[in-house]
Structure formats: structure tokens, C-alpha cells
């Protein structure tokens, strides 16, 4: 028998200790499987810059501080922070101000691979030069950098110390799997499934409630940590359907071939029904209405912009006609974001078996995958009320 992992407990504290995007620089690492996120982020830069233009400029004697929440371990967060710093520097210059010092906090759960992230950071420019000279040196970093481990559903910073919060492709991750979803006595018990795509209404409502509770906590805390005149730019997976059991792109990513792979392990006797049913992806693609209700109920922020943005496919392949490459891209994409949870639940050996099946299924349905799997994003620009 293959070794079994320990069950992932649904409590937020337990999830905080183990959950992260897959670290390192290997084939299934997040660093090597986040090209789609990079492309989607670049396509939204005009929206990010609109938010940056709303941030109130403070005294040049006070550092300008940006925090990226859910930074993960690839270069995407570094590229985005660089765009933010350079745009804000231009704003200071255009207003006739001296440039302040810039500081960036990279934040994620303690299990995040901060080592890989910091290895990707360019060197800090020589302090002998001016900030203008530093910004002109493309190969150097023009800001002080620090890592902040912790859940963004808890307080991360002292009050009134951040000018801008940025968070992309992270807020759809819940603080925990709703307890009722893996409770056999509950009407929301997600029997036979590992995600809410196509699940019962009661299951989906439990996920929706968890999302709105978590987002409410996030907004309340950021409202305390932002400086007066500060803003936030948030991007998370979204959907256009009013039905939360239709999870759009994430539904196709985790509710089809990934689901079928779990079912294969059950049918082959490698795991029990109960083992599969006690695993659920703690993710929720929000509708605009879901999101808007929480922002308005919290009251800390004014909505500058709230829209659904078409991000495109999460599968980036060099040869679309190569079915094997598409299947591998599907398996690597799933594993880069959920592999750590699968490993913890069923152990490394069975995890390898599961993702091997995902790859085979993706290869067999390559054309359909590329045609149909598209991600939508909720994009929110918020300013402190």
C-alpha cells in the first residue's frame, strides 16, 4: 500500500501552517507555472495605474510603502512592485516633489517559499547615488524589501503604515474549508466531490458564506493598516453566473479532470470514498454581487472600480497542437497551486499517482481544454473611505 498522508484539518490555523503555492524552481513549481498569471497581470496594468493615481502623495520625508499580499514565490510579484514604485516615482516628480524612499513588503503564509522569492530580487542599488539614479538603473532594485509571513485574514501591519495594498490571484483562497462541507451530518456535506463546481446548493452556500466572512475580515484589517488617502488594488478569480455552483474557469480546472482523477483512485482501491470526500479545494470564485455586498457591508472603503475582467486561459503552452504538452500543463497548473494540500492529504506517492492521471486525462481532452478553460477575474479598486 502507498503511504497515506494525514488529513488536512479544516481549521484556519492548520491550513495556514501547510498551505502555499508549490515552492522551488522545479517543473511543477509555481515559479515555473505562473506565466498565465503574468500575462493576466500585464493586461490589467492600466487598471492598476488608475488606482495608483488615486493614492494620496505624502511628505517625501516619509517612505512610500507598498504591500503585496499573497506574493507567492515567483517573479510576478517583483515585476508588479517594480511597476508600482516607478509609477509612483513619476507622480512625485510630476508634482514637483522630491522622491521619498520606497519600501515594499512581500507577504504570504509562513509556509511560502520566501527563499526562492528573495533569490529572484535584483540587488539593491548603491546608496551613494540619489533615488533618481537608483530608479534609472534597470538592473537594480529601487526599494527596501522585507518579507511578512502571515495570513491576510489576520492583522499583518501596525495601524496607518501602508500607502498601497496590492493583491492578485490570492483572495479566492479561503481561510479554511467550511466545516459543514466535510461534516457527514451536514446538509452541506460535499459527498463524492473535491470542489464545489456542480455541487449542491447547500454546499455552495457554505463556501459563499466562508468567502464573504473572510473578505469581510480582510477589508476590516486593511482599513486599519492603510494610511489616510491610501488605496487597494485587488484581483481574484471571478464568475459571471449568479449560481455559485458554476465556478467558471476554476470549475473546469478542479471540477472535471482533477475530480475524475480522485474518482479513479477510489475505484482502483488506492483510497477510500471517505478519504476523497474529506478533501476539498478551499477556493471560491466570486461574482461581482458577492464581492460588492461585503465591501458595502464593511464600510471601510469606497469602490472606485469593480468589474469582471477576462483573463484568458490558465494553460500556457508553446505547441497548442501537442496534446501531451497540454496535458502536462494541466497537471502542472493544478499541482502548482493545490499540490501541497494533496500531498498533505494522501502522501507524496499517491499524489504522484493522482496528478499522473490528471495529465493523461488532459492529454486526451487537449483540444477541448484549450477551447473552453478561461479564467475570469474580479478586479476591485478601493480607496479608504
From TrEMBL:
GO molecular-function annotation terms?
A: metal ion binding; methyltransferase activity
Regions crossing the membrane? none
The UniProt entry's GO biological process terms, in alphabetical order, are: methylation
Keyword terms of this UniProt record:
Magnesium, Metal-binding, Methyltransferase, Transferase
- Report the protein name in the record: Indole-3-acetate O-methyltransferase 1-like
Which superkingdom does the taxonomy of this entry point to?
Eukaryota
